[in-house]
Amino acid sequence: MKRKAFIKNSALTAFSISTFGIKNSFSNSMATANTIKVNSNRISNRIFELAKFGLDDKGRGYRVAYTKADIEGRAWFMDLMKKAGLNPIIDAAGNIIGKRKGKNASLKPIAFGSHIDMVPDGGNYDGTVGSIGALEIIETLNENNIITDHPLELIIFANEEGGTIGSIAMVGNLTPEGLLQKSQSGVTMAEGIKAIGGNPDHIQSCIRYKGELHAWLELHIEQGGILESENLKIGVVEGIVGLRHWIVTLEGFANHAGTTPMNRRQDALLAASKFIIAVNEVVNSVEGNQVGTVGKMALQPGAYNVIPGKVVLGLEIRDLSDDKIDMLFAQIEKRAAIIANESKVKIIFELEANASKPALTNKVLQQAIFNASNELGLTTKLMQSGAGHDSQEVAFIAPSAMIFIPSVGGISHSPKEFSTILDITNGTNVLLKTILAIDKVIAGLEINH
Questions:
Q1: 281-337: per-residue pLDDT in tens?
Q2: 288 half-sphere exposure, CB direction, 13 A CA radius
Q3: What is the pLDDT of residues 234-271, one digit of tens each?
Q4: Helical axes 22-30 vs 421-438, angle rounded to 10°
């Protein structure tokens, strides 16, 4: 699905603030909450309860957005929210929002949550951990009679896996054209939003503007194997990578494979093979965590006895820096020009309209997560997210941060996706302590324009 269909051109809001003196103030504010812990059994039970929605007769999960299973899972979750006193509402985009009053109604709310929809035949932890964990925060505060200074909002975004549709709508970037795009469930976004209780005809009513939220926090599985391989417990996300896609067309000349000498061929597939190797070499030639991938290919005419005359590739580059993406692509273009000349083919690049901007997380929130983890004796790592999340959209309107917990085997978007209940509980306790800490920070999370 072309993500740009949903997004208006907009510059990413950047957040930066000096963290001088923040560590001590956060540590002091969290001292009163040291004995408060979440209920791991309740979290575990609810993860498995939610997993039942969408299971087919072979045990495969299919809680894809806008399907019957998604609707049923959302109803189940909203019932739990009601029991926790949140009185949830569904906004025009289908996002579920539950509010808890704070001591000071004039303060902006602290928001946190995730999503509960899944990819086809997906796992039970992506999105679910952050959603169940967010609800557990509310339950724990209720049971300990704690009222925060700031109001709290639990947000479950709609259709994250199909293009972060709910969060894109919330920041004002879901277009009329985007509403007409087909979702993974086969219906249009507008039809799907109606099915889950939203109102696409009044989609603008769900928009939240810059400054409306004090902060946004999301707990999530890592979806990679870095934390597990380094035996670390908490990932503090420094940012979510931006990505760009190019359609790369290589035009040679299709000719008889038996009668055309090797030195007279214009083999588009051979040139494509050299190009793929060049992409890998360029991306690996620079220090950092950038990634470049050729993930799809189509060739013509596709016969044993015909030299391939045309190949179309899909190139993707991801990084936290737009400048680095530009630099890598420029180097790839140079290598492509050499390959084209040597192979006697034409190489054409077409940038697809589904780019996403890198989203850097707020440094004050990062420090709060580090401090909460340290108080719990949990090892940490500052890391980037190579996958997209709703937090990437919310970063346009609010200071945002993400907490990662280990994914066993680095597996995600798979039935084999798994995180231990110990790691999930650790992450939820870090989220709880972080919320209680930033609740005491009245100023200092300003958005830089």
A1: 999 999 999 999 999 999 999 999 999 999 999 999 999 999 999 999 999 999 999
A2: 20
A3: 999 999 999 999 999 999 999 999 999 999 999 999 99
A4: 110
Going by C-alpha positions, the residue among 182, 138, 133 that lies closest to residue 162 is 182
Task: Identify the helix (H) or strand (E) that includes residue 282.
Answer: helix 268-284
pLDDT tens for 388-401 read 899 999 998 999 99
- What is the sign, positive or negative, of the torsion defined by CA atoms of 220, 99, 398, 164? positive
Output the pLDDT for position 23.
46
- The DSSP symbol for 373 reads H
Which two structure tokens, joined as six digits, stand for 20? Answer: 């001088």
Q: Say which residue the tokens 């630099």 belong to.
A: 327
CB 156 within 8 A of CB 115: yes
pLDDT in tens, 32-64: 556 899 999 999 999 999 999 998 877 888 999
Amino acid, single-letter form, for residue 334? K
How many residues in total does the chain contain? 449
> What's the token pair of residue 130?
């952050």
Q: Which DSSP symbol is given to 55? A: B
CA distance 101 to 149: 9
The distance from CA 2 to its chain's CA centroid, rounded to whole angstroms, is: 16
Mark out the alpha helices in 315-362 (DSSP H runs): 322-343
CA distance 101 to 109: 9
In this prediction, residue 444 carries a pLDDT of 59
pTM over 0.90: no
pLDDT interval class at 109 (50, 70, 90)? very high
Determine which helix (DSSP H) or strand (DSSP E) holds 400, and give its type and residue range.
strand 400-405
Contacts 24+ apart (CB under 8 A), 267-270: 267/307, 267/308, 267/343, 267/345, 268/299, 268/308, 268/309, 268/310, 268/311, 268/345, 269/299, 269/308, 269/311, 270/308, 270/343
What's the rounded Cα separation, in Å, for the pair 188 and 179? Answer: 7
